[in-house]
Input
Amino acid sequence: MNPPIRVLALHAHPDDLEFQCAGTLALLREAGCHITLATMTPGDCGSAEHDAEAIAEFRRNEARASANLIDADYLCLEFRDLAIFNDDESRRKVTEALRRVRPDLVLTAPPVDYLCDHEMTSLLVRDACFAAPIPNYVTRQWEPAPPLTRIPHLYFVDPIEGIGRDGLPVAVGFHVDISRVFVLKRQMLACHGSQRHWLRKHHGIDEYLESQARWGERRGREIGVTQAEAFRQYLGPAYPRDNLLLELIGQDGSGGAVVPTNSREPRGQGTRGTADQGEA
Ligand SMILES: [Zn+2]
Output
């Protein structure tokens, strides 16, 4: 039997994944994938009451509780809020995280979004996917993991409210119908109790969970279902171009179902393989 497909969802802060792709992660888990939820930071600026380390500890625990609901691992890369930069050391650190998790499929932040941390995360993850299979790229981390065997499939989640810097809607590659698992997605977001309180204070938003539901409904209307999430696949040269995500969950990307094929070649980022892609 082939090992399970490994999925890494890596966004900037605790709760970003719950807004943008937790429904799809629940479906991938149902499909038998191994899931890791990861955040670049522990959300250390997300409080007006607690100091940075205290709120960070709260939020790591909230993220872990959310991950537990879909039987996923949780990992924090321990960058700090508003201090994620696309530099040499950061790229090596993110590449090491990929080599340790060994994903076949990666979901990350979109290239354009309202917040610097989101955009830097997107760049770092994109380039770490490329770097991770390259044997001569050393991460300079403690007990480094071996290179990946191939570049993972890479997908960008929606920016907040689906808009770019000009306030206009960004392009959507495909939708995932998450209507059936929306209750679970809502429960995952509800694990982030500190933020329901904090957002009320900082943004005047008294409806943390309702805004999640409204966004999913809007994406859902675009394909005639109750709740949906939208993605774009990164299709740069050397990156895989077949849509593994849709194939795994048996959807056609516009609200319909397809029968998953059984003809897929064995996958899995074996720990002993040699890189077959990623020539720089
Ligand atoms: Zn964020």
Summary: Residues 42 and 59 are 6 Å apart (CA to CA). The longest strand covers residues 6-11. The radius of gyration is 18 Å. The chain has one domain: 6-249.
